[in-house]
Specification:
Number of domains: 2
Order of helices and strands: HHHHH
Distance between the termini: 73 Å
Oligomer: single chain
Strand content: under 5%
Organism: Shewanella eurypsychrophilus
Keywords: Membrane, Transmembrane, Transmembrane helix
Number of helices: 5
Protein name: DUF3302 domain-containing protein
Shape: rod-shaped
Largest sheet: none
Pfam families: DUF3302
Low-confidence stretches: none
Helix content: 55-70%
Length: about 130
């Protein structure tokens, strides 16, 4: 008789544990979005609840959606054009420096004193502005 009640208690415990475990698991993308200050965290939360009705078929996509955004770099796709422009400017600066060095080398080979020019500083685009 005791074992029947014990088995019934274990069944209830396992059922409640699975119920709450599924709820916690479906909320993981929302927690990631909240931690990363995702701009669409409310939509992720609702989509997580919808994923319960689809038997978590859309849950992996919610995980990807939540992890794509980071507050420090955004979606990661916006800065490509800015980086390309900065790299083009850096290449122009390097080409100018190489031309100056070639002129100095040519003047040394010809034995003429080369005009002294201040080197132009090369700044990298990776440095963050403070």
């Amino acid at each position: 008789m005791f074992l029947d009640y014990f088995a019934l208690g274990v069944i209830f415990f396992v059922a409640i544990f699975l119920f709450y475990g599924i709820i916690v698991i479906h909320d993981i993308p929302y927690e990631i979005a909240k931690e990363r200050n995702h701009p669409q965290q409310d939509a992720l939360h609702i989509a997580g609840w919808v994923s319960l009705f689809t038997l978590h078929a859309i849950w992996p996509f919610l995980w990807i959606w939540a992890t794509l955004y980071r507050e420090d770099r955004g979606w990661g796709f916006n800065n490509v054009a800015q980086r390309e422009l900065a790299l083009e400017d850096e290449v122009k600066l390097l080409n100018k420096t190489v031309a100056q060095l070639e002129l100095r080398l040519l003047s040394i080979e010809l034995g003429k004193p080369a005009p002294v020019q201040e080197p132009t500083p090369i700044t990298t685009t990776n440095e963050k502005e403070v």
